[in-house]
């Protein structure tokens, strides 16, 4: 959408005058990007890089809000308490509010918008990147739908409610019990402490409108097969008519490399000649265009991209299972990345900030990130795809407690290792985990799914793991990172603090890939860059950078020996400090790198020596 029209919309609604009164909530540290937040147009970038169109309007900005008791939930609010900056959660500084909601209250949003006449033709879709947790949406006083889930995108067709007039009211109601409910919520708790952080309630990703034709491309499912040199493609089309055709075209820059046409029931296997493989050392992305043809004319068209890459496992010459990328062993090493921000909590202040962590991770000499019990906006994975960073994606934890934690494999003398979840809790988990896997399937950077972390809400481990493997056979599945272990999934993953260790290769190496899913956690609090003045912590704390980097180098020097024995990957805790945890490479405000870049790069190089493992 042209900036001039967007500015017209904002001015016509008085948003520019609202913006003058917005200020971040004071009292906490912040990143440099906080000063770059434009309250009239925050996070203006296109939010869905895997399916792009030009006809869209960003609805981020100042909305009205109110928080009312939950018992009054049926009462549509007639008055609002103030303005909130969307898409920053109400608890965050950048929201301009800084309030906690909790299970006994409901958060309401309202925004009046103008929809241009060009949107009258075809359909109007209202998109939400993510809202935590239970959401009801109303347009012009009528409910258009609801959604449960804090991490997956969702949309509503609001065409029938916007045909008359140009000015429309959008109202959003959100209830989020945080850790008082069984839903996935990651590390959010009502009373933050230790490794548990400030709750995130409400809209925390971009809200936007899209204009599409009556017949339109709703989604694609793109799965590369490098062995057969094809891209297997499924296209979901709304209001497909008899005789319509789907045309898919792949591009290498400006050069067309493949094209195929089929109908709604045709499996599209797009042959890619001499495929350029995607990897951390060469993150090549093909362009993709999907078109709907009717009597030879294009009725809808969307842009996308894909990569030819493979995530798999195979035994080395010693019979040890290894994690492979494009049929070759690549040691995968990266930080535990929790994706929290001191000013935006779950939401990065700007797209530049969102990209910063990824770029710096690559510069430090990592080739992978474990996205820990959180799911990011689609643009985060897009940046990983472009940078060439592998991603291990966790399912956000929920319904924690009540199950035993045993670090050994299998069930031990009748002890209960799996939690007994209620049917409602299990249904919530399954629905959101499947939605997450579907929504992010197309991003080639994601090479592994992680259903459970440690014993946090872990239930029906074997069943959930095998269900995950069936839902996406193209990726590896790490059933329980550091958790209760069962003989299931591709990966056996232990956590060990602070020094690096590994599962016994003689016992487990022939069955599963061996991973060190968390280690390190070396802490260094830096005055002026901490969430609170005292009582910050790390798994092992230091007073200066020299001692910290010396200890870190000692740990990394031990890992090549473990790689030779059978270790395929490792995760260091962590990318940045988070609230009172001070064990990041960067401070929480991202203003200080605690260890010299060149030294970290140097110690990391030894991990990628191909001579450490013989696959032949």
Description of the molecule:
This protein has 616 residues and is an alpha/beta fold. It folds into three domains: 210 residues, Galactose-binding domain-like (Jelly Rolls), CATH 2.60.120.260; 91 residues, Sandwich (Immunoglobulin-like), CATH 2.60.40.10; 282 residues, TIM Barrel, CATH 3.20.20.80. 16% of the residues lie in helices and 31% in strands. The chain is built from nine helices and 34 strands. The strands form nine sheets. Strands 28-26-25-24-23-34-31-30 form an eight-stranded parallel beta sheet, covered by helices on one side. The longest helix has 21 residues. The protein is globular.
Classify the beta-strand content into a percent band.
25-35%
Distance between the amino and carboxyl termini: 54 Å
Q: At the third CATH level, what is the topology name of the largest domain?
A: TIM Barrel
Q: What percent of residues adopt helix (DSSP H or I)?
A: 10-25%
How is the quaternary structure best described? single chain
Mean pLDDT, all residues: 93
- In which order are the strands of the major sheet placed? 28-26-25-24-23-34-31-30
The CATH superfamily title of the largest domain: Glycosidases
Q: What is the helix tally?
A: 9
Radius of gyration: 24 Å
Task: Give me a quick take on this structure.
With 616 residues, the protein is α/β, with parallel strands linked by helices.
Topology at a glance:
Elements: H1 3-12, H2 15-19, E1 56-58, E2 61-69, E3 82-86, E4 105-114, E5 123-128, E6 131-132, E7 134-139, E8 142-148, E9 154-157, E10 167-175, E11 202-203, E12 207-212, E13 216-225, E14 230-238, E15 245-252, E16 255-262, E17 268-271, E18 286-294, E19 297-306, E20 311-315, E21 321-325, E22 328-329, E23 332-337, H3 351-363, E24 368-371, H4 378-387, E25 390-394, H5 423-439, E26 446-450, E27 452-453, H6 461-471, E28 476-477, E29 480-481, E30 491-495, H7 505-508, E31 513-520, E32 522-523, E33 540-541, H8 545-565, E34 567-573, H9 597-605
Parallel strand pairs: 23-24, 23-34, 24-25, 25-26, 26-28, 27-29, 30-31, 31-34, 32-33
Antiparallel strand pairs: 1-12, 2-3, 2-4, 4-10, 5-9, 5-12, 6-11, 7-8, 7-10, 13-14, 14-17, 15-16, 15-18, 18-19, 20-21, 21-22
Helix pairs in contact: 3-4, 8-9
